[in-house]
Structures are given as C-alpha cells and as structure tokens.
C-alpha cells in the first residue's frame, strides 16, 4: 500500500491539507483442516482499499474581539470487510464532513475560547463496524450529526 500527505500554506493563516491511503492486502495462503487451499474465501478485515482526508484551516491575526479560527474537514473511506471469512459482511464506503468556528482570546482575555462545531454535518448513515453474531449479521452504527458549543479558559 501507499500513503501520501500534502500540506500547503496558501497565505498567512490559511492552510489546506490532504491525505490519501491505498492498500490491497492479500493472504498468501490459507488452508483448512483437510489441507485444502481456501485462500480465495478470505479477505482482510477493516482494511479499506482507498481512503482520503481533506481539510482547510484559517487563523486570523489578533483583532479587538479576538482571534478567529476556522476549520472544515472531510474524511472518506472505501468499503471493507467486517469478517475475514464471510464476504457478505461488508461495511460500505462513507464520508464525514465536519467544521469548527471559534474565537480565541475573546475580547482580549488571554486563554478564553469559544467555538461552535459540527460533526457528520451531512447526517450520513454509516456503519462503524459490521460483524456476525452466529448466523445473524449485526452492525454498529456511526454517530449521527452532532453540533455543539465549547467554552474554555486556559490558565
């Protein structure tokens, strides 16, 4: 497989970055108790073939109200097998969009921060994991859209 990361400073305070990963793992040989080659029946689990991330970050110069900080990010991954020996147990591809907008050193108070944020902003339905329990396929769903506000003081 390969991995690549790229980060660029577009102008003072503005950074964009991205990453890409590719993997195509294969078992060399799997034999059953009778000595038969059953390699073709097995897949690597939790190994998406392709994945990528993109993000943009901005941090303003100091202003009378504080320092504006913003981030937008997106992460995507290909489908992957949940169980090595059962090709029916697949977690499908999905992508997640997130963002954060904040203000630090609010009103000139060193260390005071406030931010609004969101995760899974498109409210994508996705499985975090897919697995069998006996003969029944089960799944653990990923988190739905979530939003919030952070208020913090760093001393």
Q: What are the main properties of this structure?
A:
elongated; mainly beta; two-stranded antiparallel sheet; 155 residues; 54% strand
How is this structure best described in words?
The chain is mainly beta and 155 residues long. The protein has no helices and 11 strands. The protein has strands spanning 2-11, 14-22, 50-59, 67-77, 80-81, 90-91, 94-104, 112-119, 127-133, 136-141, 146-153. The strands form 3 sheets. The chain has a 7-stranded antiparallel sheet, with no helix packed on it. A hairpin with a 2-residue loop joins strand 9 and strand 10. The protein is elongated, with a radius of gyration of 22 Å. The mean pLDDT is 93.
Q: Gist?
A:
The protein is mainly β and 155 residues long. It has strands spanning 2-11, 14-22, 50-59, 67-77, 80-81, 90-91, 94-104, 112-119, 127-133, 136-141, 146-153.
Low-confidence stretches: none
Structural class: mainly beta
Largest sheet: 7 strands, antiparallel
Q: Termini, distance in Å?
A: 44 Å
The counted number of beta strands is 11
Strand fraction: over 45%
Number of helical regions: 0
Biggest sheet: strand arrangement: 1-2-3-4-7-8-11
> Rounded to an integer, what's the Rg over CA atoms?
22 Å
* Helix share bin: under 10%
The outline comes out as: elongated
Helices and strands, in N-to-C order?
EEEEEEEEEEE
**Quick check: average pLDDT?**
93
């Amino acid at each position: 497989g390969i991995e690549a990361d790229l980060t660029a400073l577009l102008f003072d305070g503005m950074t964009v970055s991205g990453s890409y990963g590719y993997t195509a793992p294969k078992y060399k040989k799997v034999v059953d108790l009778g000595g038969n080659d059953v390699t073709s029946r097995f897949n690597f689990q939790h190994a998406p073939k392709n994945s990528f991330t993109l993000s943009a970050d901005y941090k303003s110069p100091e202003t009378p109200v504080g320092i504006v900080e913003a981030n937008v990010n997106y992460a995507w991954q290909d489908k992957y097998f949940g169980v090595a020996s059962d090709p029916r147990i697949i977690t499908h591809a999905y992508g997640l969009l997130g963002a954060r907008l904040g203000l630090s050193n609010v009103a000139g108070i060193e260390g005071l921060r406030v931010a609004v944020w969101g995760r899974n902003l498109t409210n994508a339905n996705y499985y975090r994991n897919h697995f069998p329990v006996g003969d029944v396929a089960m799944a653990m769903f990923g988190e739905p859209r979530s939003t919030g506000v952070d208020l913090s003081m760093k001393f």
